[in-house]
């Protein structure tokens, strides 16, 4: 299974009040949300439906329902005073009169269930929490698929929905279990290079989520009044200070010297360096940093395995940012565009080593063309709270970080 086999990927990890749910697949078939809200879910947030809300996918996903496919999702029924749903029902409609299949799945309310439907030829397999619960054979032409509830108090569902994925291949049971249990391996990269390529590992980190220190606030101290008057309407932050506790391993003394030297030389390059900490499957932590302090390695020379420890102190000069994601799959999707209205200067780090600086004004259109296919994370730094208008064709990963 490859990443491009995922043709729809909806983690529903948006913030409350968002009117769009982003598709993290290459198709970018985002969902326009009608009245539904985002609440804490199984993994991050989930989308909540209470009977009258719905969402619409903005692009056609399946070009052919009669080819192999897999649908996976997590769902939880909600409780109501009367008529609480107790089952989900897969509905498959085929060509011909009254030619359909219904597969009920018992589901206690307030519990998460992982459901999956896999089609391979004329075979349809239904899974609950990774276990095969039903296999059906149907030779007709599939016209449509739906997941319903035994709920009659509204036109639409009464549930929480999370992590919906569609694949253009038929996954095996083993692959379904692997997909449901995938946890992003935490990693640290600098300008796209994993620390581990230098034999460097991070055991601890400080400052990555801390709110930076406030700059000196304007204040007045009256000699005939207690305390002081402080201007709290203008809050701005000092640079972010990040400390990574690292250790480096090498097989020989010479390898140790070479690996450590290569790692240190990464910070000699001009400009800021992108530090990425992968702690979430789709939402990495990103910092544009530089290293101003020495890297002092504590070690003992050894003729066999060499191990050294050191503190890597990094500074993020522009600590407040908005993080986007743009996926280039062809020349048709090479351009990331941003329309912004801001009275103060902002910078845009495009994620491929280029940056546009000192952008300000009303309805300023900024675009960037990526030369190679891949996933990119543009980062906008500056006074994010004072941006007055913002539109983009990219995914908003972190509105403010």
UniProtKB/TrEMBL annotation:
InterPro entries linked to this entry: ConA-like_dom_sf (IPR013320)
Protein name, entry field: LamG-like jellyroll fold domain-containing protein
GO molecular function: hydrolase activity, hydrolyzing O-glycosyl compounds
One Gene Ontology biological process: carbohydrate metabolic process
Pfam families: Laminin_G_3
């Amino acid at each position: 299974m490859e990443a491009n086999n995922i043709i729809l990927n909806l983690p529903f990890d948006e913030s409350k009040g968002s009117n769009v749910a982003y598709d993290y697949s290459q198709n970018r078939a985002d969902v326009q949300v009608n009245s539904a809200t985002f609440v804490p879910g199984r993994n991050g947030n989930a989308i909540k439906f209470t009977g009258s809300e719905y969402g619409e996918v903005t692009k056609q996903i399946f070009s052919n329902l009669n080819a192999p496919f897999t649908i996976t999702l997590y769902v939880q029924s909600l409780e109501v005073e009367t008529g609480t749903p107790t089952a989900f029902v897969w509905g498959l409609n085929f060509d011909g009169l009254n030619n359909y299949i219904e597969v009920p799945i018992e589901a206690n309310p307030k519990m998460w269930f992982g459901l999956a439907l896999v089609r391979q030829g004329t075979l349809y397999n239904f899974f609950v929490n990774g276990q095969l619960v039903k296999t059906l054979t149907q030779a007709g032409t599939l016209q449509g698929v739906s997941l319903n509830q035994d709920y009659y108090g509204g036109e639409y569902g009464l549930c929480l929905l999370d992590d919906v994925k569609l694949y253009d291949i038929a996954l095996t049971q083993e692959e379904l279990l692997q997909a449901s249990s995938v946890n992003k391996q935490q990693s640290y990269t600098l300008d796209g290079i994993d620390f581990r390529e230098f034999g460097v590992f991070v055991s601890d980190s400080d400052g990555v989520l801390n709110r930076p220190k406030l700059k000196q606030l304007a204040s007045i101290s009256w000699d005939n009044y207690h305390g002081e008057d402080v201007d709290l309407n203008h809050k701005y932050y000092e640079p972010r200070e990040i400390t990574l506790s690292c250790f480096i391993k090498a097989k020989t003394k010479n390898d140790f010297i070479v690996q450590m030297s290569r790692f240190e030389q990464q910070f000699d390059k001009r400009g800021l360096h992108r530090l990425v900490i992968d702690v979430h499957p789709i939402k990495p932590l990103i910092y544009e940093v530089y290293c101003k302090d020495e890297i002092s390695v504590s070690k003992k020379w050894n003729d066999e395995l060499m191990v050294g420890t050191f503190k890597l102190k990094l500074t993020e000069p522009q600590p407040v940012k908005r993080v986007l994601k743009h996926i280039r799959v062809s020349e048709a999707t090479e351009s990331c565009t941003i329309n912004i209205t801001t009275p103060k200067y902002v910078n845009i780090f495009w994620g491929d080593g280029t940056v546009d600086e000192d952008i300000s004004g009303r309805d300023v259109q900024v675009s960037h063309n990526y030369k190679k296919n891949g996933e990119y994370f543009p980062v906008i730094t500056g006074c994010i709270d004072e941006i007055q208008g913002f539109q983009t064709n990219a995914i908003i990963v972190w509105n403010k970080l």
